């Protein structure tokens, strides 16, 4: 029985570690020849919405349809992982205002408090001169 190894990468053509050679994803060609490559497609908004809905059920979070729609939009702009992390945080924001259901205002509040990677990078570049090591690109 052969072991199953799952690799996920988006590195493209890059230097193979420990050599001066370039290869797809930085993987030696003799190893790459033995792999089965399965291309994947991004999730459609309908699929993202269903994933988020399932995650809400697993987290025991009651979310309004409008809030779920906003969360789906955020997942498309930022990432699915970021949107899934917002579920429990938005639930805490709703609980603070003594509501059992997460609403749009809770999702917006959490979105304003926690940056996704894209907004974080944008902020760092915008205020680059204000940081100690501003010469780093």
Automatic annotation (TrEMBL):
The keyword Ion transport does not apply. It is an enzyme of class 3 (hydrolase). SUPFAM superfamilies: P-loop containing nucleoside triphosphate hydrolases. Residues 51-116 form the RuvB-like AAA-lid domain. InterPro entries: P-loop_NTPase, RuvB-like, RuvB-like_C, TIP49_P-loop. Keywords: ATP-binding, Helicase, Hydrolase, Nucleotide-binding, Nucleus, Transcription, Transcription regulation. Residues 1-44 form the TIP49 P-loop domain. It comes from the Eukaryota. Its EC number is 3.6.4.12. The keyword Iron-sulfur does not apply. Pfam families: TIP49, TIP49_C. GO terms for molecular function: ATP binding; ATP hydrolysis activity; DNA helicase activity. It is found in: Nucleus. One of its GO terms (cellular component) is nucleus. It catalyses: ATP + H2O = ADP + phosphate + H(+). Belongs to the RuvB family. This is RuvB-like helicase. It comes from Blastocystis sp. subtype 1 (strain ATCC 50177 / NandII).
């Amino acid at each position: 029985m052969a072991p199953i190894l799952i690799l996920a990468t988006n590195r493209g053509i890059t230097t193979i570690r420990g050599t001066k050679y370039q290869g797809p994803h930085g993987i030696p060609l003799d190893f790459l020849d033995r792999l089965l490559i399965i291309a994947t497609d991004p999730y459609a908004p309908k699929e993202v919405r269903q994933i988020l809905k399932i995650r809400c059920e697993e987290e025991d979070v009651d979310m309004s349809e409008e809030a779920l729609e906003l969360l789906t939009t955020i997942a498309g702009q930022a990432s699915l992982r970021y949107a899934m992390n917002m579920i429990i945080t938005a639930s805490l924001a709703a609980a603070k205002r003594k509501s059992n259901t997460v609403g749009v205002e809770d999702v917006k509040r959490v979105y304003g408090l926690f940056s996704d990677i894209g907004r974080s990078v944008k902020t760092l570049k915008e205020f680059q001169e204000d940081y100690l090591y501003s010469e780093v690109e």
